[in-house]
Amino acid sequence: MAGLLGSARGGRASLREMLDAGETVLAPGCYDALGARLIEEAGFPAAYMTGFGSAASHLGRPDIGLMSLPEMVDNARRIASAVDIPVIADADTGYGNAINVIRTVREYEAAGVAAIHIEDQVMPKKCGHLEGKQVVPAGEMAAKVSAAVAARRSTEFLIIARTDARAVEGLEMALTRARTYVEAGADALFVEAPQSEAEIEAVARAFPDVPLLFNYAEGGKTPAVSYQRLRSLGFSLVIFPLTLLLVATSAMRAALARVKADGSPIELLPSLLAFDEFVDFIGLPEIRELEQRFAEG
Q: What is the per-residue pLDDT for 8?
């Protein structure tokens, strides 16, 4: 994991290298640095900063475009600095037109993330699995993709183009839009919320030579598909934006109910992670070593 005095990231494969190698990269979603460290500890090759989880955790509100560029970039920076694995980040619509996208790319790239996805929704956007979405003209989104590609300082920083047109214009139009975004320079495609396994297969058939992202949004509009099936279809990235958020919410709700009923957490103690183990996990031993290294006198 990333230490206070530097990162071992240089010795690890970049996200682009993983995709070029034909790997199917699993990237669980996190909404804070602690979650990112848990993802890395579990052995995953990448982490995904979820916009849905960021809005839920930072604002206690749904993903309806309330998070601003500075808020999202600050969260991305904290997450990326906590781990040595690549971080893929939600960048919503790019927070404006093509000119705004230039700043968005520069800010996220400076924050240390490996990739962002931008989408073709109208602002204020909504979670891809909520109703009532609208999309901008395909040409407008293509211009944003072109601007994003031009703005990045390194080709190692990936631009993922997301289309939410399936819910608005149907699957065929979504695929047409996605082709336009590839022509504009997108490194990978994210066709949001296909509504059947047949539609998932259609997305894969349409882009056999383009890295594809699959959004495994638990309980959303897209059906559950096994890892083996997604890999056989050729999906390059699989994100799980809600797993940690839903697990954490369920666990905290249950714990609070127990404390409310008992008046204390005594009954929870046997099931809790030990305090010493937790502080070791979040880096206390490194702090002690640094204190000795830089002690006065």
A: 52
